[in-house]
Amino acid sequence: MRLLHTSDWHLGRAFHRVSMLGAQAEFIGHLVTTVREHAVDAVVVSGDVYDRAVPPLAAVELFDDALHRLADLGVPTVMISGNHDSARRLGVGAGLIGRAGIHLRTEPAACGTPVVLSDAHGDVAFYGLPYLEPALVKDEFGVRKAGHEAVLAAAMDRVRADLATRAPGTRSVVLAHAFVTGGEASDSERDITVGGVAAVPAGVFDGVDYAALGHLHGSQTITERVRYSGSPLPYSFSESDHRKSMWLVDLDAGGAVTAERVDCPVPRALARIRGTLEQLLADPRLVPQEEAWVEATLTDPVRPAEPMARLCERFPHTLSLVFDPERAPDDPDVSYARRLAGRGDQEIAEDFVAHVRGAGPDEREQAVLRDAFDAVRADEAVREVAR
């Protein structure tokens, strides 16, 4: 059986105030063409269909168009909700839509009930694990302490239990939206850390033939059977080195996996350039970046006059301007933002405690801070669901 694995469409999202709706529509067309030209048997979409719980009307219309075009192909599609989606909104009408071959899986309680498709070699069971917010689903899965690994492991126990009841030789595919250990994040994924831990081990997916992951925006192979498709379009300059693609996955009669990448159309290349303003305006090596979307980091010791206007004369698609004056590491004027770069909420809070009283928090205080951050994230998740 041949699968097309994609995720993280983020319909409705802009790129530094530039609308991506046209590029997203082009991607949907490319997806449909790929399904047709590569004789795809099933499409899997591993969450974050929309960029927010209440998407703009234009994004909903594009999603509706995608559903109709996929249904018209007669190729089954299995789709889960991600942490950006409202599971309840995305799942409205799932029963009716399923009759057209579009299978929406947004209910955590149904993770052990697969969509079963068949080919010449027998059945393939597709299990949809929507994004599992630990604080909201721990009771459903009977875990004592909310955590990503605990709830995902409990969900996978249900998957394996159902798979054990099926005919010998039944192959299996799991769709999941999570941060798996070994994955490389970018700046455009929403933080899902709970208890100071965001990642879960890849071994949680043991026992299935293929795990089609969503959440991280770079295409990645965690193991031969556990992969991220990545987002089809860039949503931050941290993705400037990404090759945007989908996975074309073949499951043979015994469940062995072979996979190849299918590139996605990107409206414009991304470029990150750095130097003084005069260097950037004069450097002949930057000619290829003149038609790219540009993030420029200026290292001038004194902020130059009208830097954006001057940059746009050479790089008309400059979208982001960062000032990072070159100074000695011990210079007291090194920016606060620079000192915080790459640090998480917990680390920043612990550093603040150390700064105020001269000693960092002990283990008990660290636990209090961690619980406080988890409570805030859980409250945000509840409000997202209620919207």
Write the layout of secondary structure elements.
Elements: E1 2-6, E2 14-15, E3 18-19, H1 21-37, E4 42-46, H2 57-73, E5 77-80, H3 87-90, H4 94-98, E6 102-105, E7 115-119, E8 122-129, H5 134-141, H6 148-164, E9 171-177, E10 179-180, E11 199-200, E12 210-214, E13 220-223, E14 226-228, E15 245-251, E16 257-263, E17 270-275, H7 277-282, E18 293-298, H8 307-314, E19 318-323, H9 336-340, H10 345-357, H11 363-386
At a glance:
With 387 residues, the protein is of the alpha/beta class. Helices cover 32% and strands 23% of the residues. The chain has helices at residues 21-37, 57-73, 87-90, 94-98, 134-141, 148-164, 277-282, 307-314, 336-340, 345-357, 363-386; strands at 2-6, 14-15, 18-19, 42-46, 77-80, 102-105, 115-119, 122-129, 171-177, 179-180, 199-200, 210-214, 220-223, 226-228, 245-251, 257-263, 270-275, 293-298, 318-323.
